[in-house]
Amino acid sequence: MITVAFLDEGTLGHTSYLPRFVAELRRRPELGIKPISLTALPLTGSLARWGNAYLPWFRKHGLDFGASRWRWAASRNLQIQTETLIKQEKVDAVIVNTQSVGLTLPCIAGLPPLFVCLDATFRELES
User: How far apart (Å, rounded) are the C-alpha atoms in residues 104 and 98?
Assistant: First the structure.
């Protein structure tokens, strides 16, 4: 049995398929995969204050960077959860859904193999 951590952004379309995928793996133990689901949301404590903050003066001048701050906070939330999980049990692979919440995960790269699923094509990312 291999243990795979599935890290989910927890928003929009990601919530429609990843939980079902993990549930199907749990329902099918004969596949030899023990799925563990971690989600970026809800943000709590200082991560919520940082990621969900509204900075009126900065926003007025286009310097709020709200989406970037949220992505960092969500990614950091998953990083903390993943580091805790790896300390508690052997994890054979980590699958991150999507690159938005994989920003702070290079620090765990190389511990278990780390796979990042993109929700855009390379052409879309180039633009």
Answer: 12
pTM equals: 0.80
Distance CA 46, CA 92 (A): 30
Residue the block writes with tokens 């620090």: 107
Is the Cα torsion angle 4, 94, 81, 13 positive or negative in sign?
negative
Q: Looking at the DSSP assignment, which residues form a beta bridge with residue 93?
A: 4
CA count, 13 A, side-chain hemisphere, 73: 19
pLDDT digits (tens, 9 = 90+) for 66-83: 778 888 899 899 999 999
Q: How far apart are CA 82 and CA 90, in angstroms?
A: 11
